[in-house]
Amino acid sequence: MKKVVSNEVWVMGDLRNEKFLDLSLRALAKARDLAGSFSGKAGVVLFDFLEEKPANAAGPAPVAAEPAIRKCLAHGADKVYLIEQKGLTLHGADVCAFALAEAVEERRPALVLFALTEFGREMAAISARLCNAGLISDCQNLRVENGRIIGTCPAWGGEIMAEITYSDTHEPGFATIQPNLFSAVEAKADPGEIIRISVAGSGKMRRAKLLSLSPEPLDEKKLEEAKVVVVGGAGLGDMEG
Q1: Domain over 8-225 is classified CATH 3.40.718.10
Q2: Is 148 exposed, middle or buried (0-12, 13-18, 19+ CB in 10 A)?
Q3: What is the model's pTM?
Q4: Mind listing the pLDDT tens digit for each residue in 32-79?
């Protein structure tokens, strides 16, 4: 028999580098908003990685757990869960998903949010399946209505916006959200709680090993990261009008 779902909304904290952590803090802003709708608590889940960054890895350094905890608390997290498990790997979405699923089954949050990245997509799909839970992908927004969490997502190639919710038999809920639609805001709140969780995970799982890391150079700014977007319709014409 499953435990009763709690009133907590969790965010998966991505510690691969500062940029990804910022996306998680943006998702935390939405988690706080949702939790406030039913007098709940917002929590961030972090992983205590024991492996070192490969010697030949390039690009930004990963974020250590302790400074990440301070940032999450400063941005209004009521609770920070630090998952400890031997074998956790910084870029191993599969291993992290197994550890997260175990924590979710034990604590039963109402909702688990992931910033919409390739890593977040993979982790959300695996952990939702392990928990036999519902997953709403690519959310532009989430709201609570009549006690239900409803996600607004693009459908049919983005031509329409669909509203999706969870069935009662697939709780807790999982969702990936577009973090750039929200702002990471520092919040004055009561001192948050830090909770360490030791999980068994899947010791028999075959884990991939990161040999090297070489970020691709960014030639153009991503549309979702632009502060100003200029859009023209089919009748715009040319520069002369």
Answers
A1: no
A2: exposed
A3: 0.84
A4: 999 999 999 999 999 987 554 555 555 677 888 999 999 999 999 999
pLDDT for 41: 95
Rounded-to-integer distance, Cα 102 and Cα 120, Å: 17
Domain boundaries, the chain: 8-225
